[in-house]
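Chain A, query sequence.
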Amino acid sequence: MIGPQPRIPANCRPLVDALTNSQMAVGWDLPAGDWLLIEALIVRCGIPMLVDHARGQWQSARSRPRGGSYFIPGWRSLPSAPAADTPTYTAASPVSRQQQETDSWFDRQMARAKASDEQRKELSS
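Chain A, predicted structure.
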């Protein structure tokens, strides 16, 4: 006979389901205090942020996590989710900055080559 199912609070069920659907199945036999903390984290961070962070923890774990409590310390360190109307900014990647520098260097070299070519034409005329 299989033992009793853990009692997962209704407010936490969407997070547990999202983790399980993301192939991160762990046990959820947690004390009431942990469930209250998880509920607060869901409100503060949002389920997408918690699942994304859990995925990183899962992939870098030395051995497969066995219980939901494994994720709690990492989740506690997360910032609050930004407000929905907060603009998103993306920093220029180092590759694009390098490409801009390369393009600028190329443009300068082409200008020098054209100027040199024009001087040769003038001298040969």
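The mean pLDDT is 88. The two ends are 101 Å apart (CA to CA).
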